[in-house]
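2024-03-11 09:14:02 INFO worker-7 job=invfold-0412 stage=load source=structure_tokens
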């Protein structure tokens, strides 16, 4: 792909982000061609960015079943070609007990597996994400600022499910002895901020080395809680301010590194680990890397293709030990970035989409290369491995109105068919998207301590 910089001075990746983020009204409204009194009658879809002509990959749409396509029903207008006019090599991916399914190689080490999870598996993983993965000892985005319940049976989400108006005290309220009986409606730094965001580029962990990371992180005293926050209800925190839950090795957001100073880390959920292992085992990696001559290591050149050393053993030795569960509301975004904090920079990152569909931008190793927009629906799996781990990616848009029917609340007098937890999960996901991403921090045979050497 050719290098590209827009006339505005934005990188090609940023230009694409701004296009899909835009909620500007329909051009006819902006031009004043529609009378003001009719504006409120317009369908929200009038402000959706056009997908046609943008080279959008839309590979998980139901073929020949347009009425079942929640994206089209919501008013989004997908292009005619699911491939968006782009090359994508089809492969077959095995799944235990379910035969095989189509997967697509959309870049070097980049694979999309549409609809990998069925409807039952999606709902089960939504439940786990909210009712299990948000429980102690897993850190949450809220942990620094609020006094969260310490036991899983009285976790934040259990309060949301059983008594959503329960007040959760902010740490500031306990330190300052302020009145906590009235929740504050004001926005918090976790949900919005007027400060200009500074982009930082952290050194890749594989280049920095284990010992240097330990030394850099061990002096960290922890983030300071905001003294401006008041108590809020469990409903408010879960539905508008919960951003992420950390699984396994704890990622230190301030230092952009894993905290190796605490042993052992919280346990990575075994069922999720098995799902990720099944995904990796089912991919025919020889078809992904087998025709690539370059081998990662001393001979690596930026922009060159990579065949990771030992990739043929991933089906047996891949073991995810860390992950982030991202909780998006429909107006949230994830700006373009590269995940570079794992000591093994090439092992697969598994990304699972649940709930509302989203526009995923898959870039290259520089922001100046135009990214590929991909529609990710609930149940889709994206795998980034090899050189794909060095590519910029982000989510500039959650696609409003695209929640699939099987994740919607049962109504019409049949509510008793769902338990309290399931209904709470469906209330949350009714305006949200969940992304689970899992990775493996250490190379095979890595031994912590001392010089942090790798054993052959």
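2024-03-11 09:14:09 INFO worker-7 stage=emit residues=456
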């Amino acid at each position: 792909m050719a290098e590209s910089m827009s006339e505005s001075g934005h990188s090609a990746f940023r230009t694409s982000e701004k296009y899909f983020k835009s909620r500007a009204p329909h051009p006819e409204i902006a031009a004043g061609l529609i009378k003001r009194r009719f504006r409120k009658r317009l369908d929200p879809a009038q402000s959706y960015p056009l997908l046609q002509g943008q080279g959008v990959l839309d590979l998980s749409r139901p073929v020949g079943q347009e009425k079942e396509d929640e994206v089209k029903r919501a008013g989004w207008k997908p292009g005619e070609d699911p491939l968006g006019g782009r090359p994508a090599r089809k492969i077959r991916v095995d799944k235990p007990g379910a035969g095989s399914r189509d997967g697509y190689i959309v870049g070097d080490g980049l694979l999309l597996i549409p609809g990998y999870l069925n409807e039952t598996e999606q709902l089960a993983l939504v439940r786990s994400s909210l009712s299990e993965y948000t429980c102690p000892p897993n850190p949450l985005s809220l942990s620094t600022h609020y006094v969260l319940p310490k036991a899983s049976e009285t976790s934040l989400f259990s309060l949301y499910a059983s008594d959503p108006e329960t007040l959760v005290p902010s740490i500031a309220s306990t330190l300052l002895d302020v009145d906590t009986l009235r929740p504050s409606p004001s926005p918090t730094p976790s949900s919005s901020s007027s400060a200009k965001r500074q982009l930082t580029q952290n050194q890749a962990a594989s280049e920095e080395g284990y010992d240097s990371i330990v030394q850099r992180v061990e002096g960290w005293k922890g983030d300071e809680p905001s003294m401006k926050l008041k108590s809020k209800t469990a409903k408010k925190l879960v539905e508008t301010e919960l951003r992420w839950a950390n699984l396994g090795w704890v990622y230190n957001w301030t230092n952009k590194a894993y905290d190796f100073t605490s042993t052992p880390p919280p346990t990575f959920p075994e069922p999720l680990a098995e799902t990720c292992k099944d995904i990796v085992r089912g991919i025919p990696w020889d078809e992904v890397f087998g025709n690539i001559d370059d081998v990662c290591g001393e001979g690596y050149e930026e922009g060159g293709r990579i065949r990771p050393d030992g990739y043929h053993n991933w089906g047996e030795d891949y073991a995810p030990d860390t992950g982030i569960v991202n909780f998006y509301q429909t107006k949230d975004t994830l700006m373009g970035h590269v995940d570079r904090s794992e000591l093994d920079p090439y092992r697969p990152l598994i990304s699972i989409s649940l709930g509302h569909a989203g526009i995923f931008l898959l870039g290259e190793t520089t922001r100046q290369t135009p990214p590929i927009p991909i529609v990710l629906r609930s149940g889709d799996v994206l795998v980034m491995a090899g050189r794909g781990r060095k590519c910029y990616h982000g989510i500039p848009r959650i696609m409003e109105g695209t929640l699939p029917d099987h994740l919607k609340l049962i109504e019409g007098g049949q509510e008793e068919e769902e338990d309290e937890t399931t209904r709470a999960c469906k209330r949350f996901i009714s305006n949200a998207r969940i992304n689970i991403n899992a990775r493996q921090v250490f190379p095979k045979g890595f031994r912590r301590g001392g010089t942090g050497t790798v054993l052959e």
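2024-03-11 09:14:09 INFO worker-7 stage=report msg="DSSP finds 13 helices and 16 strands in the chain."
2024-03-11 09:14:10 INFO worker-7 job finished
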